Amino acid sequence: MSEPSAYEAFRALHARPGGFIMPNAWDGASAVLLKRAGFEALGTTSLAIAFAMGKQDGFHAVSRTDAVQNGALLARLTGLPVNGDLEDGFGPDPDDCVETVQAAIHAGLAGLGIEDTTADPANPIHGFDAAVARVRAAAQAAHGKILLTGRTDNFLHGRPDLDDTIRRLVAFAEVGADVLYAPLLPDMDAIRAVVKAVAPKPVNVLIGPSSGAVPFAELGAAGVRRVSLGGALYRRAMSGLLDAAAEMLAGNIAAAARGVPGKEISALLPPA
After folding, report:
1. Whole-model pTM?
2. Residue-level pLDDT at 260
3. Comparing C-alpha atoms, which of 130, 145, 205 is closest to residue 175?
4. How far from 129 is each of 98, 126, 171, 259, CA to CA, in Å?
5. DSSP state, 117?
6. CA-based angle 244:245:250, to the nearest 5?
7. Alpha-carbon span 23 to 228, nearest angstrom
8. DSSP 8-state assignment for residue 5
9. Is the pLDDT of residue 262 over 90?
């Protein structure tokens, strides 16, 4: 019997009781270290890709090609299913979303997300009909080839409207999105309401409710199937850099030498 494809393996994880954690890597080293730690799937993070390139996140400053190639690198190095954080599909029209889905499939990604964001700070969220049309087109292109997450960023962009958030997620589910996602849901009641509204389709949650962290088991008990971390691990790594910088400036140069040994990372990478 042949091994399941990355897409099939990723889909199966979403059907498993209790859910799973999908950490977001940003380069080869972070990806192989997370695989060694035991995670079964990875996401990319648009924030980390953009910041590493010295660019702003979320305004098309990073190209579709760069974002997709980053995901392909993580998949190639780890052999794990990789979900691409591909923002709004890199354009306002449904055809832009289709092109992004096709690029992700061609690159060997197991999944991707399409947001209802516009990359326009003055008007950050697409209208309802436009948002649904974009997910519908993406779902038609993705069907049976790659797992599509339909995402609304209402709460992320200062629009704390749970009713509209649920309305959008239900519509995304109805037009073919495989997974539903709304970052920064305020509390566990809101998470449970989203899970119930889109059932039986799986829901992704970003770390947990914005009211405060809860144990992973509590999210699983609420019906959450996938927990992603967005840019949190990248920011955690940057915190380590700042801590070391402060110690070095205080005279403790050895603080820079407490990281993971280079040989340890090298051993996880392909030979030269």
Report:
1. 0.96
2. 95
3. 130
4. 17, 8, 10, 49
5. B
6. 100
7. 6
8. P
9. yes
